[in-house]
Each structure stands twice: as C-alpha cells, then as structure tokens.
Design a protein that fits this description.
Radius of gyration: 24 Å
Bound molecules: flavin-adenine dinucleotide
Strand order of the largest sheet: 3-2-1-4-5
Number of helices: 21
Organism: Keguizhuia sedimenti
Protein name: Deoxyribodipyrimidine photo-lyase
Shape: globular
InterPro entries: Crypto/Photolyase_FAD-like_sf, Crypto/Photolyase_N_sf, Cryptochr/Photolyase_FAD-bd, Cryptochrome/DNA_photolyase_1, DNA_photolyase_1_CS_C, DNA_photolyase_N, Rossmann-like_a/b/a_fold
GO molecular function: deoxyribodipyrimidine photo-lyase activity
Structural class: alpha/beta
Number of strands: 5
Enzyme class: lyase
Length: 497
C-alpha cells in the first residue's frame, strides 16, 4: 500500500465523509497503523444540509449508516463523534480538543469538497496539525490513468482499455490498487472518548430533518446491508448483460447508493467482479458490470480535470444552444417532474424517482432525453432535479449522464440521436409491467396499447376506464415535431460536431 506520511502519532482523528464503513477503509487503516489512539468523527455539515429538503432520503440513509458505525465502534470500546456544525471550523476545533496531531480522511474529488478540504488543511496547519488524505473512493484517481501522450482521456473506450490494463496487467494477476485495507489488524487502537466529548448520534429531528423519513422501499442503509446486496447481486450477475436494460426486472445491482456513501468499498465491488470474470461463471455479466463501475471513475476523472462541467457544457459550442424559456418551459418542466407528460414510460420513471429516490439507468437516459430533446429544456434543469431527488446522487456521474444525453459532454451520444419515447417503451418494457406498477390508471391496457394510449379509439379507452386528461394526461408534445425542433435547435453546433 502507498503511504502519504511516515510519522507515528499518539492520537489521530479519522474524518468520515463518503466512506461510511469500518472495513477496507484506506484512511482508517492508515490512522490505526500509525497512531496509538484513534478517534472517529462524522460532521453533518450545515453548509451542505441547509440547502436540502426536510425529508431528504440521503440524510436518512447517512443517519442510519452512522447508527451502525457507532454501534460497531462501541463494540471496539470507542464511539462515533457526530457533530452538526460547519466542517471547516468544527474539524480543526475537535482535533485540538482531542490533541490529535493528524486528521486522516479519504479524498473527495468534487470541486466543493476540494475547496472545503483546502480550508480545513490551512486551519489545521495554523494549529500545527495536518490533514492526511488517501485514495479510497475510486480504484484509479485523477492522473493515474492517462493516454500514451500523458494526457487525461476524454473518450470512454480508450480510458477503459487503459484502466483495465493498469488493474489487470497480466492474466491471473492484479495490481495492488485492488488490495483490501485490513482495518481489524489494529482494532485495539480505537480510543475511548474523554468525558468532555459527547458521543451520541443526534436524531434526524435534532439536525432539522423530518423523522421518520422513508429511505425508500428498495434500500437499507449501512455496510452490512451493502455486503448482503453485493452477495445477492453476484448470484444473478450472469443475467446482468441481458437484464440490466429492463426496468421491470431486478437486473442491476442497486449498489449505487452504497458506492456513493461508501457503505460498500469500491475495491470489494471490483474484486468481486474480477473474481467472477475469472471463474467463468457469469463472466460476461461481470465484465459488463465492471465496465459500468469504470464509467463511474471516468466521470470522476472528467470532473477533476474539467471542473467547469459542473455549470457549463464540456464542449463549449453546446452552450450556444437556445433552450425553451418562459412560462411554457416552466409548465412543461413541471409536468415532466411530476410524471405528467402523457408518455407512460417517461411518467412511470419520474414517479419511480419521486417515490423511491431511485431510477433505473435506462429510464434516466430516457427521461433525460425527453426533457432535453423533446421538451427543449436546458439539461441543467433536469440535472438539478435529479440532484435533489436521487438517493445515489453523485455530482460527477449525474453531470456526466446529463451531458451524455444532451450530447454536450465528453464521448456523448451524437446530437442527432434522439430517443423515441414510444419505441423505447415497447423495447424495454414490452409487457408494460413497469408502467403498470406506477400508473395503475393504465392497468387495463394490454401490452400493445399501453405505450401510447392516445392512439386508441375513444371506445377502447372507455372500456379500459380511461378518460384522457382526466385519468391520465394526453401527450404534452408530438414526438416527431419535437424531434424536428431539436434538430433545428442543435444546428448551431452542427458544424463543430
Ligand atoms: P448497476 O448497473 O448495477 O451499475 C453498477 C454501478 O456502476 C452503479 O452502482 C454505479 O456506481 C456505476 N454506474 C453504472 N452506470 C453508470 C454510469 N452511466 N455512469 C456512472 N456510473 C455508473 N449514477 C450515480 O451513481 N449517481 C447519479 O447521480 C447518477 N445520475 C445519472 C443521471 C443520468 C441522466 C444518467 C443517464 C445516469 C446517471 N447515473 C448516476 C448512472 C446510472 O444510471 C446509475 O449509476 C445506475 O442506474 C445505478 O443503478 P445500479 O447501482 O443498479 O447500477
């Protein structure tokens, strides 16, 4: 394992952020190895919480995961310190109080997190302490996978090839980047808290959130649950290649939230994929799944090298597009957000998001495409909505996904490729099973009818108990006309694409 510091410390503090687990944890492993006594802290950062809705699933997920962390630390004779404060001032203050000369943390690559960490580093250094950071959230970070010319990639396929070559340079062998960090080797170094420090995980109410908040029917928080989900997914990975595109099937891992908050170690996930690829059982499924995990790293790398993508198009010429505006755009956007577009699969997908905090990948692509290329709305509106609702919201992956769909990102789909919401529905929800799950008003329509109810005769609609615009909306727009408008809208970038 690589190390950033060779010094030993009497006392250290481990600052948990998006790594809420006690196994295979780079910063925790190094702190325990290098220190006689280790304290653990998590900060509900007011700078972040203040902008969130009261019933935020992410906060509930974090909260439940912290309860598990705290319970495990108590078994080791310690406890988790949980603060509700501004991290920038709270971490240096706590480090001083505990006499910790070093704060250990895993690196976070989001622009806001980097800024926060720079400020914490300054404040700690002013007190004669230090922030020591480690790679943990990804297998390869920032500049570790570069082209032969030494430049960051902006196209996925060659990035993936280089990434795989670095990880698995020879048959049967893998790089050290996949090794686990065995935290339990020094578990006796977790420190008992001094009386002056309160260790109690505050309730959601105490930090200004509604309790209880349903995390969502499909997710349970915490590292034990993440490991269970990974095991369950590994047993059906052979079908991933085929099933992953069908939202009615439980075909994907649903591990994104665990990877987001680090209740699952990315090394554990990749190790499992590599093992399954090598045993031959489910090898194709495992290879495809690994490829998805590489997309996650690709977008993280893009966000690091091109932080402007957080607010602007990766390809600047796409910021010349004129999006719809005014009241009409607001009305269309509102209908999209609330699953009222009149296109059943788009609407069912938005209801899945609103009710569970999750949306299937195929549907993220479809709904995003519908907003941008059917309704002519600026992709940033949709990106913000997803950011507010997704339990697995990750700035880099969300931004990468939206810019891919809007064609403005690196290695995005060509601007003239526009999803047809009806044929997508016929292809990926052929029986209408997913649609019926969220739109019971359409439950009496058969597999041929359910994808475009407005095409049915009024007597057939009546038989099925549907009155358009009363029980289910008529379509907001005509797709063929919208497609034409989009091609015209995108003409400003045509010459440079
Ligand atoms: P699986 O199919 O099991 O994939 C395994 C893991 O690979 C995922 O958990 C995720 O960590 C990663 N992954 C898969 N696909 C992608 C991808 N296209 N880009 C980056 N990572 C990927 N993913 C997020 O984690 N957070 C987001 O905020 C997010 N926003 C998105 C917005 C749009 C418009 C689009 C098109 C995609 C977005 N994705 C996002 C990617 C993808 O949709 C989700 O990661 C996936 O649906 C999560 O389900 P899963 O864990 O079952 O995925």
């Amino acid at each position: 394992m690589t190390q950033s510091a060779a010094t030993d410390f009497d006392t250290s503090l481990v600052w948990f952020r998006r790594d809420l687990r006690l196994y295979d944890h780079a910063a925790l492993y190094q702190a325990l190895r290098k220190s006689k006594a280790v304290f653990c802290v998590f900060v509900f950062d007011k700078a972040i919480l203040n902008g969130l809705p009261a019933e935020d699933r992410r906060v509930a997920f974090i909260h439940a995961s912290l309860l598990e962390l705290d319970a495990e630390l108590r078994k080791a004779g310690s406890a988790l310190i949980v603060l509700h404060d501004d991290a920038v001032s709270a971490i240096p203050r706590l480090a001083s109080r505990l006499g910790a000369r070093a704060v250990f943390a895993n690196r976070d690559y989001e622009p806001g997190a980097k800024e926060r960490d720079a400020q914490v580093t300054c404040a700690l250094e002013a007190q004669g302490q230090q922030l020591i950071s480690f790679k943990d959230q990804v297998i390869f970070e920032t500049d570790e996978v570069l082209s032969l010319a030494g430049k960051p990639f902006s196209v996925f396929t060659p990035y993936k090839r280089a990434w795989l070559k670095k990880l698995l340079p020879e048959p049967g062998w893998h790089s050290d980047d996949l090794l686990s960090y065995p935290v339990d080797q020094h578990a006796d170094r977790f420190a008992r808290l001094p009386f002056s420090v309160t260790a109690r995980v505050p309730s959601l109410d105490e930090i200004g959130f509604k309790t209880p908040v349903a995390i969502g029917t499909d997710f349970s928080a915490g590292m034990a649950s993440a490991t269970k989900s990974l095991d369950a997914f590994a047993a059906r990975i052979a079908a991933y290649d085929h099933d992953r595109d069908f939202p009615a099937i439980d075909g994907t891992s649903r591990l994104s939230v665990h990877l987001r908050f680090g209740t699952l170690s990315i090394r554990a996930a990749v190790r499992r994929a590599v093992e399954l690829m090598r045993t031959g059982e489910g090898a194709n499924g495992a290879a495809t799944w690994l490829s998805e995990l590489i997309w996650r790293e690709f977008f993280s790398m893009i966000m690091h090298h091109h932080p402007h993508v957080a607010t602007q198009a990766f390809k600047p010429e796409y910021d010349r597009i004129t999006w719809e505006g005014g009241e009409t755009a607001e009305r269309l956007f509102h209908a999209w957000c609330h699953g009222q577009t009149g296109y059943p699969l788009v609407d069912a997908a938005m209801l899945q998001l609103n009710r569970t905090g999750f949306m299937h990948n195929r549907l993220r692509m479809l709904t995003a495409s519908f907003l941008v290329k059917d309704l002519g709305t600026d992709w940033r509106w949709g990106e913000r909505y997803f950011a507010e609702k997704l339990i697995d919201f990750d700035l880099a992956s969300n931004n990468g996904g939206w810019q891919w769909v809007a064609s403005s990102g690196c290695d995005a789909q060509p601007y003239f490729r526009i999803f047809n919401p009806v044929t997508q529905s016929q292809r990926f929800d052929p029986d209408g099973t997913f649609i019926r799950r969220y739109l019971p008003a359409l439950k009496k329509l058969d597999a041929r009818e359910i994808h475009a109810p407005w095409l049915l005769s009024s007597s057939r609609l009546q038989d099925a108990g549907i009155c358009l615009d009363r029980d289910y909306p008529a379509p907001l727009i005509d797709h063929a006309q919208a497609r034409q408008r989009t091609l015209e809208r995108y003409a400003v970038v045509k010459s440079s694409s």
